[in-house]
Design brief:
four-stranded mixed sheet; about 220 residues; Ribosomal Protein L25, Chain P; elongated; RNA Polymerase Alpha Subunit, Chain A, domain 2; six-stranded mixed β-barrel; about 15% helix; single chain; 4 helices; alpha+beta; 2 domains
């Protein structure tokens, strides 16, 4: 499968104000990290980066294209961190992790629950406890997600990491005993007990302010 390509350029200016100027020009400041190379400061078009991220998933592989670097020597990376403005959603920074396609990597992938448990129709409450797990594999074997079938869950049942079925070549790092999903019993409604006639008779009368006080003052006059 052909990997997405993303064009980046070396970034000369470093610092808070330089980064702000880049963003005003529609660019996103970034850094390429690698085990065998020094970090490289780069910049990328915000629109191009956004398009690539929307079309893929968080563990996808990207081939970066850089001026003066041949296709053969261009780095293959994963996006390790992508910062956005919490209000506008504007891309602020990106960190690329350069990888070797021949070396196993460790990362996390989301766990997606599939199926419709019959127990939910009878009041059962499905709790998705663990939403992502850590795995290790070659970069080319990275799954987008791991699915867990919950169709047969009954009230009181639970599924664990050991119930996941990772693809060939993928090793689970998260403990197999970790709980992924639980089908809890429905919450019991509190029973409302009506007061007895004796309790009603013994209950103090509520105090009424304002009008009662005015009426009492009128009677005293």
């Amino acid at each position: 499968m052909e990997r997405p390509q993303l064009h980046v350029e070396p970034r000369e200016e470093i610092g808070k104000w330089a980064a702000r100027r880049l963003r005003n020009r529609g660019l996103v400041p970034g850094v390429i990290y690698g085990k065998t190379s020094e970090p490289k400061a780069v910049q990328v078009e915000a629109r191009a980066l956004g398009d690539v991220m929307r079309a893929g998933h968080r563990n996808m592989l990207l081939d970066l294209r850089m001026p003066g670097v041949s296709v053969r020597n261009s780095p293959t990376v994963m996006v390790r961190e992508l910062q956005r403005d919490p209000l506008s959603g504007k891309l602020l920074n990106v960190d690329f992790h350069q990888i070797s396609l021949k070396e196993r990597v460790s990362t996390t992938v989301p766990v997606v629950l599939v199926g419709e448990p019959e127990a939910v129709k009878h009041g059962g409450i499905l709790e998705h406890v663990l939403r992502e797990v850590e795995i290790q594999c070659l970069p080319t074997d990275l799954p987008e997600q791991l699915e867990l079938n919950i169709s047969n869950l009954e009230i009181g049942d639970s599924l664990h990491v050991r119930d996941l079925a990772p693809p060939s070549g993928v090793t689970m790092i998260t403990s197999p005993e970790e709980v992924v999903a639980v089908m809890a019993a429905p919450a019991k409604e509190e029973e409302v007990v009506a007061p007895t006639p004796a309790e009603v008779e013994a209950a103090p009368e509520p105090e009424v302010t304002g009008q009662k006080s005015e009426r009492k003052e009128a009677e005293e006059e």
